[in-house]
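Morning. Coffee machine broken again, so started the prediction first thing and wrote up yesterday's gels while waiting. Chain of 372 residues, entered below exactly as on the submission form.
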Amino acid sequence: MDFLLTYAVPFLVILTIVVFVHELGHYLVARRNGVKVEVFSIGFGRELVGWTDRHGTRWKISLIPLGGYVRMFGDEDAASTPDTSREFTAEEKAVSFHHKRLGQRSAIVFAGPIANLVFAILVFAVMFMTVGQPTTPPVVGLVQANSAAERAGLQTGDRIAAINGRAIARFEEIQQIVRLGDGSTLDLEVERDGQILRLKATPTLTMLKDHFGNEQKMPLLGIGASGAVSQLVRMGPGQALMESVRQTWVVIESTFSALGQMIAGRRDSSELGGPLRIAQYSGQAAQGGAANFVYFIAVLSINLGLINLFPIPMLDGGHLLFYAIEALIGRPLSTRTQEYGFRFGLILVFALMVFATWNDLIHLKVWDFLKG
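Came back before lunch.
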């Protein structure tokens, strides 16, 4: 019972929110382009509860709460496979998704991931206006002995102005850049006694525990902030919106950077997590307070939007890839080709899910528990 309240419930709440936002993006742009939406479902499988609105859309919550879908008129299934079992009348073609222009179909598919990104920007903006953004001056207050920072020549009182050409305004940005790196050498621009110094530091990969007790190998520079207390700085609407866009871009950039490092072999692929780890972090975020919980929702929304843009059939990015090919050759791909593409996409997504879940079981020490 404690597990359900601590991890499962926060996970389902977060997943429901980000999936609803994603599917709402598809729904709103589909309706805007005159497409009839038959089903708006949170979850898959048997319907648990639902209702039909005046436009004929069945809104429902289904048994398996791991995702959702919008089924439009002309779709054969939840994966938006075209219905080729019959001929459509002129009236039906007018409201069918697959009979819309290429640009309209692309906009409808693209709207889901974009909705996730816009939602995250709005969440960040509201947080910066109400709670505030943690802000600590980027001044070195401590240099650990035998650390990467000491070897690089950093000293107490140094102000780190830039890392790899990126301007630094807060100490929290230094932590973010270092921890999301793969241990590669960093080019530091440092202000010391009115002069600008350029130093190089190679963080040390170290096994660390986060504030929830999770062990993870992370790059460590070996510096601490100055004695200035971190403050939560509230912003006006304009500044909050600009900072939320920047924060969203940082998450996007960090995600692609981490994936690129995994593909190149510079980052351990065991960091790729699945539903179990998301559930764990959801529970930990909920325990950390409302601000942490809301922040995690925004980050997960960004990642859901990005994942769906990958050019894998079954995902939105796969559909957009098919539409790009259609634009190039002047006609849609054959039904058989699309069917094989969807099968390949299903196998690939399933394989990635199995791999991520295996990582979760190892990360959560499930096998160690069973052995014991």
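The longest helix spans residues 2-32. Going to sketch it on the whiteboard this afternoon.
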